[in-house]
Amino acid sequence: MKSIFTGALIGDEHTLLDWGAIITNSDVIGMPEPNTVLLEVPGRSGRLDLSEVLTGDITYSNREIKLELAAQTNRDRWIETCFHIFNKYHGRGVHVTFDEDPGHFYVGRCFITSPKRVATAGTMVITIDAEPYRYESEVYEVTITGATNTLSGTVENLRMPAVPKVTVPGACQLFAGGKVYELAAGEDLNVPGLVFGPYENAISVTGASSITFRFRRGCL
């Protein structure tokens, strides 16, 4: 079975264009494991599921990204390539973007293993202990406006809870998630406690004719 990916940008270098290596494995991107808390209670049928008690949503462990690389090369060139990759990437944090999904990236720590050379080919394995979410490359921005100093609307998020930066033209009150936030006029304000949950988030504002939210969205 061939890999569904032709190449990936790791940091600022491309597996195929810079290293001449193709991805040979099909199990490239693993799914993150949900963090579940299941409690056995004596006298109770079934286990008590406490997985969402702390945050109100399920959380996830890291996922594994594994690239089994192979390149047609000679001995000296592959040794030089391997040493370069060891020094630049082994143990370091990286961003990874796959050619087939240029609008998203992954973040994780990179580990290099199994460098080998057979006849005119070289191989190695790059494993990335990646954060659970697949991030959008572009920061998401939405502006909600109203005809007067009262407005309401919906902010569309993806699967990952997100902490937005807020821009408002004047002091106002923001109502979101059952809470009230007192905002001063400003751009890219940090609002302590304001978190957008997955998918649709209803908001309303009194005291301002527009409000802008900026945040990075992430999905599985």
**Percent of residues in β-strands:** over 45%
End-to-end C-alpha gap? 24 Å
Q: Mean pLDDT score, rounded?
A: 92
Q: Class of the largest domain in CATH? A: Mainly Beta
- What name does the CATH topology of the largest domain carry? Elongation Factor Tu (Ef-tu), domain 3
Structural Rg = 23 Å
Chain oligomer state: single chain
Pairing-aware structural class of the strands and helices?
mainly beta
- Output the number of helix runs: 1
Flag low-confidence runs: none
Helical residues, percent: under 10%
Which CATH architecture of the largest domain would you pick? Beta Barrel
The helix/strand series, from N terminus to C terminus, equals EEEEEEEEHEEEEEEEEEEEEE
3D shape? flat
How many domains, as an integer? 2
Q: What's the total number of strands?
A: 21
How can the largest sheet be summarized? Answer: 9 strands, antiparallel
